[in-house]
Every structure is written in C-alpha cells, then in structure tokens.
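can u do me a favor
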C-alpha cells in the first residue's frame, strides 16, 4: 500500500494536518491498513523533502497544515496513470510457508493447508458480511464507495487464495501418488532397466522436474 501517494491524494482535496490525514486515510480504506500519527508525519516530512508537499500555515487550533505542490500533483497523476508493477510481487508469507513446509521433517503440509483454508474461508465470510452491511444502504459518500471497493477486493483475494489452497492439496495428492508408483532402482553397482512412467524420459528425474508437470 502506497501511503505516500495515498496522502498526496487526500491533500489534493485541500490542506490537511497529520491526524486529520490519518483519520481520512483510514475512513477511505475502512481501516484495512491502519496508520499511526508518527508514520503519517514521517511520510509528510519525506514528501516535503522531495518538494511534493509544503507546510501551509496553521488552522485555528494550531495544527500545522500541509498542501500538495505542483510537483506533488504531477507525481500523483503519474501514480494514477501507471499500472501497479507485478513483476516484483511482494513477499507472501503463506506462499513462503508452504514452500518451506514441502519436505520439512515433521511437518504435515496437508494439515497446514487445511488450517489455512479454514482461516481464509472465515475471513471471506467476514468480508462478505461487511459488504452486505455496506450495501444495506446505497453508498453515496465517496468514503463509503471507496470502502466498498476495498472490501470487495479482499473478498476476491480470499476466494483466489482458497482456490489456490485447493490446487496445492490436489497437487500434493498427485505427487504422492506418483511417488508411490515410482519404479525402484536395482541394487548393486548399476541400475536396472527403467520401466513405468519414467520410461523413455531419460531415467531418473529431479524433484524440480516433477513439480513442473
């Protein structure tokens, strides 16, 4: 989540102070990515250093206000127009966990998958309930519409994760069945003739080549 550009988008609506930006950011995203005031001011300082925002006096309560600059508007426009880069995806803890669980001694990877699937399906149900609440009254406020988009993205993401977990479990079942029928090599100094599924494919195969099937 780009906090930097999110704050710029809020500042385009007019001067804001730190805690006001935090409140509006969380309102727009339904508190899905909560911020603390220190994080907001750290980001504002960096934006000011880069010439994208500037201090703009104080409000009646003495809060220091920040405004977006012309360079900040150019930066924001470029962010909106540029697709989010998927060539360098962020680290996904679940994918890393399953990758490390494969072959790890004492780890029942199917149990790991089943536990995660239960959690993911519960989260999807929670998100669906939030969506129903949001649609109980037709969203009219921009923050309500923005939150609806966010919660729907969370639902789609959970659905995709559940499907991927189903695929992982099916993959493990197929690989387990293949391993059970893999022909054993002969004893002694040489290997016996290769028969069965591996015949005609150059004999032994590495685990990596099996995963490519």
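np, heres the sequence
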């Amino acid at each position: 989540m780009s906090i930097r550009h999110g704050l710029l988008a809020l500042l385009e609506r007019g001067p804001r102070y730190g805690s006001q930006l935090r409140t509006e950011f969380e309102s727009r995203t339904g508190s899905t990515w909560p911020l603390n005031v220190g994080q907001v001011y750290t980001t504002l300082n960096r934006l000011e250093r880069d010439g994208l925002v500037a201090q703009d006096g104080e409000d009646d309560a003495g809060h220091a206000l920040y405004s977006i600059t012309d360079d900040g508007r150019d930066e924001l426009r470029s962010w909106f127009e540029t697709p989010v880069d998927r060539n360098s995806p962020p680290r996904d803890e679940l994918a890393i966990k399953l990758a490390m669980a494969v072959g790890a001694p004492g780890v029942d990877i199917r149990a790991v998958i089943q536990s995660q699937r239960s959690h993911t399906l519960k989260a999807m149900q929670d998100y669906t309930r939030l969506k129903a609440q949001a649609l109980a009254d037709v969203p009219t406020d921009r923050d309500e519409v923005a939150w609806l988009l966010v919660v729907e993205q969370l639902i789609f993401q959970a659905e995709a994760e559940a499907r991927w977990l189903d695929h992982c479990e099916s993959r493990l079942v197929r690989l387990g069945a293949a391993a059970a029928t893999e022909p054993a090599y002969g004893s002694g100094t040489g290997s016996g003739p290769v028969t069965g599924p591996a015949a005609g494919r150059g004999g032994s195969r590495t685990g990596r080549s099996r995963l490519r099937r």
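Residues 185-213 have pLDDT under 50 and may be disordered. hope that helps!!
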